[in-house]
Specification:
This protein has 386 residues and is an alpha/beta fold. It folds into two domains: 198 residues, Rossmann fold (3-Layer(aba) Sandwich); 168 residues, Glycogen Phosphorylase B (Rossmann fold, 3-Layer(aba) Sandwich). It is 41% helix and 18% strand. The chain contains 15 helices and 15 strands. The strands form three sheets. A seven-stranded parallel sheet has the order 3-2-1-6-7-8-9, with helices on both faces. A six-stranded parallel sheet has the order 12-11-10-13-14-15, with helices on both faces. Strand 11, helix 8 and strand 12 form a beta-alpha-beta unit. Helix 1 crosses helix 14, helix 7 packs across helix 12 and helix 10 crosses helix 13. It starts with a strand and ends in a 9-residue tail after the last helix.
């Protein structure tokens, strides 16, 4: 099989989307799949040898992300000469839009993954007035794909509600060799906080749509009641300095390499994640695999991973008092914190990358034939929730 991949970035380990992509690539390479990857941001050191870079401009709201400026006819010639069996689209950006057009013209099937729930981002940038327009584009974009892989059933149902077809439920997995309780590193922990302090951890991009304002208020509420914890933040983003100055009892580490990040997860006490815009929540699953009990907002894909008071706690969405209350409970109850952490670890073992990626591989191989496209319409590729 030969696949063309189009993506917003090919920089390995840049974010959750690229980590999932490279996990998929690694699995497909083991099955003798050849790749041509097209992106505005390539990586010479990455594990995809055949990369093609397109022009771009920085995204105004987050300059680390690139807005591609694809030249359709040039990309069409590249794809046509490569003669792929399928095109795999990782982002509904301008490059993805052009790729869909090219697929229709060349008669090549296109499969996309719905990684990012962009319509839910708009209110964080005072752009809610454009929500109908964004949904119109999202509907057009994904309905022109042969299949759309969605990692949570809650987001899948919303996409159905807005008229998007050909949806396939397939969750992401977690690397339990990298993320597991055995990565606990006391020496590393002691460099971060005093022995009498607990670590409340956040991992992710430091952007508005992660609900950092809610996290800030929750930490202020907690800090007014107790001083036996430190909020540790791992990640980068345009608002790092803004929140670094504003949040009390906090330590911002910036972006960490995967091994050091796994140490941090396993060496922390509570994982706090207030985002209500997640299509899945990769970092939540990584925390669970590390034996870290999560406190997350009861919204979309994030809450789908958690059974309240069994393997984590669900706070009310957009509610700093509820988030603070749930974190406070775990800070004060060591037995409950250990019980939830153990159960979280046990649940994470169900999210095997091997079983998930075997289904992903079958989707790609089967959709290349016309008769198998009927399976998509009938939902035969859907799997039960783990």
């Amino acid at each position: 099989m030969k696949i063309v991949i189009t993506a917003g970035s090919l920089k390995e380990n840049e974010d959750g989307v690229t980590r999932v992509l490279y996990r998929q690539v690694e699995y497909l390479r083991q099955h003798n799949v050849d790749f041509l990857a097209i992106s505005p941001k390539t990586d010479a050191n990455a594990k995809i040898n055949n990369q093609f870079s397109v022009s771009y401009i920085p995204f105004p709201l987050y300059t680390n992300y690139k807005v591609s400026l694809p030249k359709k006819e040039k990309i069409k010639r590249i794809i046509a000469s490569y003669e792929p069996d399928i095109v795999y689209i990782n982002s509904p950006c301008s490059l993805g839009y052009v790729s869909i057009k090219i697929c229709k013209e060349l008669g090549i099937p296109a499969v996309a993954t719905y990684h990012t729930h962009f319509p839910s981002y708009l209110r964080y940038y005072r752009l809610s007035i454009f929500e109908k327009l964004v949904w119109k584009y999202v509907r057009y974009f994904y309905n022109h794909c042969d299949a759309v892989i969605v990692p949570s059933t809650t987001v899948l149902e919303e996409l159905k509600y807005y008229g998007i077809d050909n949806l396939v439920y397939l969750p992401h997995g977690v690397d339990t060799n990298l993320f597991n309780p055995n990565k606990n590193n006391i020496d590393f922990r002691n460099t971060l906080v005093p022995p009498d302090k607990k670590i409340v951890l956040f991992v992710g991009r430091i952007v508005k749509e992660k609900n950092f304002d809610v996290l800030e208020d929750a930490i202020r509420i907690l800090s007014s009641k107790r001083d036996d914890f430190v909020l540790v933040v791992a990640g980068d983003g345009p608002y790092l300095r803004h929140y670094q100055k504003r949040i009390p009892n906090s330590l911002f580490l910036g972006k960490l390499d995967p091994e050091r990040l796994s140490n941090l997860y396993a060496s922390s006490d509570i994982f706090a994640f207030p985002s209500v815009t997640e299509s899945f929540g990769n970092v939540i699953l990584e925390a669970m695999a590390s034996g870290l009990p999560p406190v997350v907002a009861n919204s979309f894909g994030a809450s789908e991973l958690i059974k309240h008071n069994h393997d984590g706690l669900l706070a009310e969405p957009n509610d700093s008092f509820s988030l603070a209350e749930n974190i406070d409970y775990l800070l004060s109850n060591d037995d409950s914190r250990r019980r939830l952490g153990y159960n979280a670890y046990q649940k994470s073992l169900n999210y095997s990358w091997d079983s998930i990626l075997s289904i992903f591989y079958n989707i790609l191989t089967q959709i290349t034939s016309l008769e198998d496209k009927e399976l998509i319409e009938k939902g035969n590729f859907e799997i039960d929730k783990v």
